[in-house]
Design goal:
The chain has about 700 residues and is of the alpha+beta class. Helices cover about 50% and strands about 20% of the residues.
């Protein structure tokens, strides 16, 4: 079985690697993937072990673990988001408070080197002990505020799994202990000078030497800079838990269930398989089921990403989180709770994010070897100086220097600051990069997977072609069509009305308007009955269609939806409506190819429409009729072929694939869930910005 765990105490890739190693050694564990970004772990194990043994293995390794709540329950997903905010606030507090003490410490210790003005008191050898002790006192609060590095660093060292915190703890501790030793030596030489125990000038020279050889400001600076770096890095951490919470918010909290012939509002958790549920216009569908009575059009864009509502007649399947548009209907619940399509999507996003660990920096990768190696080198350096000079002071200085220099304060700060420079240039151009890993990984991508609706296309239908019958003008056809469709709420109707408004064509009043589900609309205009809809409606009415069906087939081959308009006797014309590509989509596909990337288009739409759009854009690899969970699987299949994959999408249905991809790019006008699941957000909703993001990554690297 596959089980998710929360893991606490991890601070770097060395930690996640050690946790993985510890759990992998548990008998019965088949696979383990630790997500440092989400502080979680996904474990697949058999009957020989259980959660208790896995948690114990993590605890024995020096970290904490607990079972993750089941997908579909809101609380477990909300808690990590709260913990993230709390962690950020704590880091900010620690950094600012450390800075308050570091500023005077740095000024006193280093001001003379920078040529800054300091009172004469600070330059007199006789006051060296006071100045040194003042530096020590200013360092103590910084040590206390950042004590977490010591508790974690020495704990992992004790468990023989040193990490970056171990280096920080060792380096800063060495600096402080060296400074404390210097304090004693300053006091010693001042005492000797004061009481004539030695040559006064020589003793004061020693005092001045040790006063210049304090490392308190180094310890304070190391801790403060590392905290700043970790704060900046944490700010850009993934927000998977928020994405999951937003997914959960799509499902309504209550359902209108038929009980003993009466409608009763119950919590959605109380809905059972077999219950009859009533859905009113504008309401969200609470669980998956099959329509038993009534008819309507349902907006399934939250799940499929497709903009056109789907007609639902008795026997049709409906899914949780989709929105009922016009009619009322009753359906029988077939899947509830964790079995619904929405819950499965939540689980996919969660698992995909958990299996995608961040890129480990070089120092993190070798930290397990690096720390003991540094300690050995420090010991060798100290021994060599002892042997060469016979001076304990020289030996100590050399050993501590190795430890202090090896402390990775540069790594802790350089990476997030460098990323801020790169992401800053991106932000100027409407490209929001959410993590260092995304910017670093994007330059290695070999394949770009594009969602169709809303990503390469406009995301809403528009009128593309008008074919009036002989004797009917284009304006007359559009006037009749828009007048008929004006009372309808269907997106295709909205597209026709919008076209008439753009052309400033006045609409005629209609009477006896009737929407025929699965067919079209009918109404009286003046003294004649007119209708608009699909071929089935025209054939049922016995309308003479002439050569228009052939034209409709031709339009369908181009990925367009053809609507017939007629009166009682003959067809008046044909209007084609389609979700058209964005102006820059074809150029973006060409630009991706110029960068040496393979382009794949993925859509839930039918094959014919997808092929037509692909041909227009120059995309040769088109995957159509792909369900949300299959989108994630298609990305995974490409990865299993050894390819680095970037996914560009905008819908909730794209969230699992965005999370699974090596880099997920969300169109800024897309859903909040897609944006939260992605690593990069394209604020201008322009596919050319995805090309620019790849170029930005390559330039930054």
């Amino acid at each position: 079985m596959k089980q998710k765990f929360n893991v606490t105490g991890m601070t770097c890739s060395a930690c996640s690697a050690h946790v993985e190693k510890a759990v992998r050694q548990v008998e019965g564990v088949d696979s383990v993937s630790v997500n440092l970004l989400g502080n979680s772990m996904l474990v697949e194990y058999g009957g020989k072990t259980g959660p208790e043994q896995i948690i114990q293995a993590v605890t024995d390794a020096g970290y904490g673990a607990s079972l993750h709540g089941p997908a579909g329950k809101a609380a477990p997903a909300a808690r990590p988001a709260d913990a993230m905010e709390e962690e950020l606030a704590g880091m900010k507090r620690r950094f600012l408070t450390s800075l308050v003490f570091l500023a005077p410490l740095f000024y006193i210790a280093m001001g003379h080197m920078m040529g800054w003005p300091l009172p004469a008191f600070f330059h007199q050898p006789s006051n060296a002990l006071v100045v040194a002790f003042l530096q020590f006192l200013l360092t103590l609060p910084i040590l206390y505020i950042n004590r977490k590095y010591y508790t974690v660093g020495f704990k992992t060292l004790w468990h023989r799994a040193p990490n970056m915190d171990s280096l920080i703890a060792l380096g800063s501790s060495a600096a402080v202990l060296y400074g404390v030793a210097a304090l004693f030596l300053i006091a010693w030489h001042l005492g000797r000078a004061a009481y004539g125990a030695g040559d006064a000038a020589a003793e004061l020279a020693q005092v001045e030497h040790w006063a210049m050889d304090l490392y308190f400001e180094s310890a304070g600076m190391i801790l403060t800079l590392i905290t700043l770096g970790k704060w900046l890095e944490t700010r850009s951490k993934g927000k998977t838990s928020q994405a999951i919470t937003r997914l959960m918010d799509l499902a309504p909290k209550t359902a209108m269930v038929l009980r003993d012939g009466a409608e009763v509002e119950v919590p959605v958790e109380d809905v059972a398989v077999g219950d009859l549920i009533v859905v009113r216009p504008g309401g969200r569908i609470p669980v998956d089921g099959v329509v038993t009575e009534g008819a309507s059009s349902v907006d399934e864009s939250a799940l499929t990403g497709e903009s056109l509502p789907v007609e639902k007649l008795p026997g049709a399947k409906v899914a949780a989180a989709s929105i009922n548009k016009s009619g009322s209907f009753t359906f029988r619940a077939t899947r509830v709770g964790e079995d619904t399509t929405l819950a499965q999507m939540i689980r996919l996003v969660d698992e995909a994010a958990s299996s995608k660990a961040p890129i480990a920096k070089l120092a993190d990768k070798v930290a397990g070897v690096f720390v003991p190696t540094v300690m050995v080198i420090a010991a060798i350096a100290a021994g060599a100086w002892w042997f060469a000079t016979g001076s304990a002071t020289s030996a100590l200085t050399a050993g501590v220097a190795v430890l202090v220099i090896s402390c990775p304060c540069a790594l802790g700060l350089a990476t997030p600051v460098a990323i801020l420079v790169g992401t800053g240039k991106g932000a100027e151009n409407g490209i929001l990069v959410k993590s260092a890993e995304a910017l670093e990984t994007l330059h290695t991508v070999q394949t770009v997977v594009l969602d169709k609706t809303g990503t390469v296309t406009q995301g809403k239908p528009r009128v593309t072609d008008l074919y009036p019958h002989e004797g009917v003008t284009t304006e007359e056809l559009l006037c009749i069509a828009a007048s008929l469709e004006k009372p309808s709420e269907h997106p295709l109707a909205e597209a026709i009305v919008a076209e008439a408004q753009e052309r400033a064509i006045p609409l005629a009043p209609v009477k006896d308007f009737q929407a025929v589900h699965g067919r079209g609309v009918r109404a009286t205009l003046g003294n004649r009955t007119c209708m608009g809809g699909n071929l089935a409606m025209m054939e049922e009415a016995g309308v003479d269609l002439g050569s228009f069906p052939a034209k409709a087939e031709e339009l369908a081959a181009q990925g367009k939806t053809a609507l017939y308009f007629a009166d009682e006797h003959q067809v008046l014309g044909l209007i084609a409506v389609a979700d058209t590509p964005k102006p820059t989509s074809a150029a973006a596909v060409a630009a991706f190819r110029k960068l040496g990337l393979d382009v794949v288009m993925l859509t839930g739409d039918n094959q014919r429409t997808a092929d037509a759009i692909g041909k227009e854009l120059g995309v040769t690899q088109v995957m159509a009729q792909v369900l949300p969970q299959d989108k994630e699987r298609k990305v995974k299949e490409l990865q299993e072929q050894g390819k680095k994959v970037a996914m560009v999408g905008d819908g909730i249905n794209d969230a699992p694939a965005l999370a699974r991809a090596d880099v997920g790019l969300a169109i800024g006008a897309g859903t909040d869930v897609a944006i939260e699941s992605a690593d990069i957000v394209l604020m201008k909703s322009d596919l050319m910005d995805a090309v620019a993001a790849v170029e930005l990554s390559r330039a930054t690297i």
